[in-house]
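Newbie here. two chains, one complex. Structure please?
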Amino acid sequence: MVGKTKRHTTMLFCLSLLALLPLAAAESPVISMSLLPTIQYQAKDDTWTDTMVADLSVSLASKREGNVRGEVVLQGNSLNPTPSFDSIVQKAYFKARFPSFRLTGGKTRLSWGDGMLFNAGDVLYGSNDASVSLTQAELRSTTNWLASVNYPLGLFSFAEAVVMPSETGVPIDMLFGARYYTTVKDIKMEVGYASMNPASSVRVHKPYLSLQGNLGFDWYLSSSVAIPEAGDIATETGESWMISGGVFHLMTLPLDRSLTLRLEFLTRPFGRWETGAVKDSDAALLLYPEVVLAYSPSLSFSLRAIISPLDLSAVSTLGMSWNIFDAFNLIGSISLATGEDGDLFAWSSSTSSSFSATVGSSWVF
Amino acid sequence: MSNKPKKLQRYNRLQKIMILGILLFSIPAMIFALSADEIIQEMDRLSTFETTYSTGSIQTLDRFGTKTSLFKSWSQGKKDSLIEFTSKAERGQKILRTEGSLYLFYPDAEQLIRMQGAALRQSMLGSDISYEDMTEEKNTLDNYTAKLEQNETFKGNECYVLTLTAKTRSVAYPIQKIWVDTETYLTWKAEYSTAQGRLLKEMEVLETFVSEGRVIPKQSKIEDKMKKDSSTLMSVDSFEANPKLDRSIFTLENLTW
């Protein structure tokens, strides 16, 4: 019995040593922590709840030298008390630089297309719904297991190919895609394609085009369609057509303050131009206005909203971020849904809170 | 009576000799005096190396204390520069300026952003330095016309005082007043103003070092005159002049690496 315990202890010790060995070759870990006490009101049930939303992530990165590098980011959230392996491992990837191309393997993110909230060019993860928290600095952060090859084609151009595992576990259902990124005069142009087979569906082919430029203000435009291999191809292709775009401008104000204005839209020209019982992922038109006042380089106030112009409903978030000390921020926000029953952002929605207020802090060390 | 014309003649002759003497002494000074453009060209030449590699820090001071960001920087000639932040909060964020374009890379989102227009004037990491300041191209006369105002002693250093007026609207500061060392051509001080002459920022070199026979700022203080109790200290901790750099450093491929 004692021998068995000893053996187990030795094995555990050896495993711990093995796990810690890579740390010797790593940069010091970066820990991100945010503690956000939140009060929510659900109008449908007339209930108030208070929640401590605690987010923790630990990043272990290799030294930024040589031709191979990698990173593991582990994440935990108090709202998910029974996490899965996939939700804990936010990132786990390596990058290897060969003489003429670069290989990336593991769980990470590829940012295709342009757009902060709405991005029709994001054919890999689909940045086209409204189910995001407007209190986050980074609105889209989905990662996935993938293998990609990046092939440089000059100073400002490259081609990239990607393969992702299937949702069904069947090799033939794997996602694959490629894009070409270049700059033509003053316009950045991206053209790409992805083919995937979502679970319980037929394979779809998604070509996209994304442009970005400046006309005194920054502008960006993306468009994509999803062409199914079977079924009513013409109708489904038409309904899947998405166009997203945005304008961004920064105005310098007196006393070194600045006002950042952003307006994004997402439209499905053959989508459901009607009100009631429409999911955000089917809505024909959505808008995302954002106003950020940088009162000083360390203190900013923001107003963000997702608006459904067809039923005149919206979810709005008023936020504040104050970077007091090195990477230590005080954060506050108030979110409010303003819509009637049956609207996209109904006050008495059963799936999201009607009102929420958060005051907390975040720290990176 | 007869003495008077003789005296007058002698006086006139003396006057002519004096004028001739002054002219003779000042002609070489006029010939060898540098014009404002030549001073700026020399200033740019001496502050530009074929290639550089440096490490340093940006310290932002305000009433709550000091925030420090560490960086590595590579440059090539007048137009190419790459900055990579190494401090924990910003680790892996990179800024590339090449061929007149500025790109940012955020490793957390694996996002590549091309910056244009007014976005370039955003404060970098909450400091008094904008993205444009940090990666400024060293071809001053392409963007400014220079006028030599006077010579002045600044902190014991004889300096040319020049006013630079922007030729285009694309520059961050319409007017700059700079104090350039008459021997080393180091810019000891600069005042950055609006077209109406309103002072926006002030830069002062606090410490210097010598590399390849050139005097380089080791520590500079940048103060935003629009803000109270706020300044930024930019320090160079290590500096290597003319290291062998691969051209691929200044590409999108390396930026996203």
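Moderator note: The helical segments of chain A are 2-24, 85-88, 233-240. Confidence is low (pLDDT under 50) at residues 12-21 of chain A. Thread marked as resolved.
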